[in-house]
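Working notes for the structural subgroup meeting. M.R. asked for a predicted model of this chain before we commit to crystallization trials. I am recording the input and output together here so anyone reviewing the notebook later can reproduce the run.

Input as submitted:
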Amino acid sequence: MLKEVADNTIKPIVFKTSSGFVYYDYSDIIMCSADGNCTNVFTIDNESPVKILHNISFIEKTYCADKLIRCHKSHVINLMHLEKLIIKRHQVQLKKNFIVPLSENCWKRIRKMSEINIHKV
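Returned structure, recorded in token form:
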């Protein structure tokens, strides 16, 4: 059975699990973390992660754009759930207190976005 949103369209993110398929809106996902050839998906609604049968590279190639970004070799984060930039350790804190490391390139990208937003205020 397909999950549908209010306007009868299928949610945009589809992941394969061992028991079938799961559907998410971009806003549902906090982060994805590599687990071998699988990936753990952490969402707003679930206390424990959902294990999907896709590797982190598949998520990056298929779904990363403005909201989801690959921030590290093992992590994809949702910028909508960014709460804090931890400067001394080159990490970010996301909702539900997830702390995620950043690659050097991602660190520079998020710093630049932060500076742009600060100057707009």
